[in-house]
Amino acid sequence: MDKVNFLTFQKDDLLSYLELMGEKQYRAKQLWKWVYTKGIKSFDEMTDISDSLKKKLKLKINIPRLDIHTHQKSIDGTQKWLFNLEDNKKIETVYIPEEDRGTLCISSQVGCTLSCSFCHTGTMPLVRNLKVNEIIAQVLTVKDSLLDWSNKKDNRKITNIVFMGMGEPLYNYNAVLKASRVLLDNEGLCYSRRKITLSTSGVVPFINKLKKELEVSLAISLHAVRDEIRNELVPINKKWPISELLSVLKNYPGVNNSRRITFEYVMLDEVNDSIEDAKALVKLLKPLHAKVNLIPFNPWPGSKYKCSSSQKIKQFADHVCYKGGIVATVRQPRGQDILAACGQLKSNSVRMQKEKVLI
Fold first, then answer.
1. CATH numbers and ranges of domains, the chain
2. Does the global pTM surpass 0.90?
3. How far, CA to CA in Å, does 313 sit from each of 120, 246, 283, 290, 330?
4. Residue 295's beta-bridge partner residues?
5. Tell me: the pLDDT tens digits for 96-109?
6. Of 92, 134, 168, 264, which residue is the catalytic one?
7. Burial of 232: CB neighbours in 10 Å, binned 0-12, 13-18, 19+
8. 342 catalytic, yes or no?
9. Which entry of 112, 116, 119, 342 is annotated as an active-site residue?
């Protein structure tokens, strides 16, 4: 008999499952805390569970982690894991440490369906959506690897979680929603809505759903201010153009001066980096509580784009921030030497697979 993966449970599901086993409701809370606050992977280690219940649970449920295929460390401290899934598909997860935070960038799909022309991940076909347990297991497996099971939130190494890895999270909406609820649960991992960010290229109908059902922090992969340019960079724009995307963002819950929507904007030389582009960006975003994250383009083999010069990026940022009055930051590339920077995910694993074929 196949065992049930504990990480597939929502808390209410676990409660119902244990009731069917004839157990009291409080057992669900006990198990939940062991798994999500202590990082326990074996029922034998749960000291407040009776031996008879442990025996029953071991026959029915497992608490697995992902299989680590490779684990790389950058000279700047960034770490990247390539995980094997049960069907031998692979995904990547990246940890980015900074002085005041540690951000875990997780994947929501194997491959991607968006075909964004500047992103290496986007040039690969979508293989499948990740399951709820595969999304959650990325977090738990990395917490194991980082020894990040402190009882105190102030001592956490992973302080922020971003859905910015492989895939479009809103095209795997139900699994991302359920996984996020586990991450948010205050009797488990206990991340706040401000500490979880979902990045989308602009799947308008699901942004509407997200408004009502989750309310995590939101990042928009904008990258252009004119539809004709964005159609090429982010082809989903042909379905939901800039005006429609911005319209749905006006009433995103909780957005105010202290909690803004982030607009991601990759800096591509002679494509979207002119002062006229900066002026148009300010005009588009002025009605919103917005901040802009300018991303220097990270090169990958076969790309037709070049990164804007440092001077151009500074001029662009100065115009948006000082003249336009919109908060603008320039993302510092991290993990380039291990192909873990923005837009580079999965490229290394694909290269390794191609090398195996050649051998």
1. 4-62 (1.10.150.530), 67-358 (3.20.20.70)
2. yes
3. 22, 24, 18, 19, 8
4. 266
5. 999 999 999 999 99
6. 92
7. middle
8. yes
9. 342
